[in-house]
Amino acid sequence: MSIALGREAILAGFTTATTLVAGLAKAHGERRLDDKLLALAKPKLLIVDELGYLPLEPDAAHLFFQLVSRRYETGAMLITSNRSVAEWGAVFADPVVATAILDRLLHHSHVLTIRGDSYRLRAKRKSGLIKPPTAGDGPPVGSASLRPVTGGNNPQPRS
């Protein structure tokens, strides 16, 4: 029973980035954006998975900024991405919006960088279904490379 309750608590505040911005765009089109942002501001932890898997349209990036601003210093966000912070200008189709989002997200944050294969690829390699990478292949799929942020009171991301 405790596992089921924990799972429901997690799912109440879990979404993929694509689903999240689609919901924000729909609410905006229906003139319910404030209600949607209010609902997304309520969970103590909002988990956004796969940010940057697909680049966001400029309007979607602005909607995501509004969400981050609404939750800033009121609720925690856990965001997963295979994109480095340096690539977020392209992810959000606007370096200025990306900087504003990162400014709020990185303040009071802990950044974890995970290098190496995902658990899915690791299992495939172990079973022999795919070959191990060679030195010329570049970074492993699923690796992240976060660069330290300088200036202000932002904590330094750790590798």
Automatic annotation (TrEMBL):
Coiled coil residues, start to end: none
Leader peptide range in chain numbering: none
An annotated Gene Ontology molecular function: ATP binding
Region listing for Disordered, in residue ranges: 128-159
Pfam families registered for this protein in UniProt: IstB_IS21
Entry-linked InterPro entries: IstB_ATP-bd, P-loop_NTPase
SUPFAM superfamilies: P-loop containing nucleoside triphosphate hydrolases
Residue ranges of every copy of the IstB-like ATP-binding domain listed in the record: 2-127
Name of this chain's protein: AAA family ATPase
Lineage: Bacteria, Pseudomonadati, Pseudomonadota, Alphaproteobacteria, Hyphomicrobiales
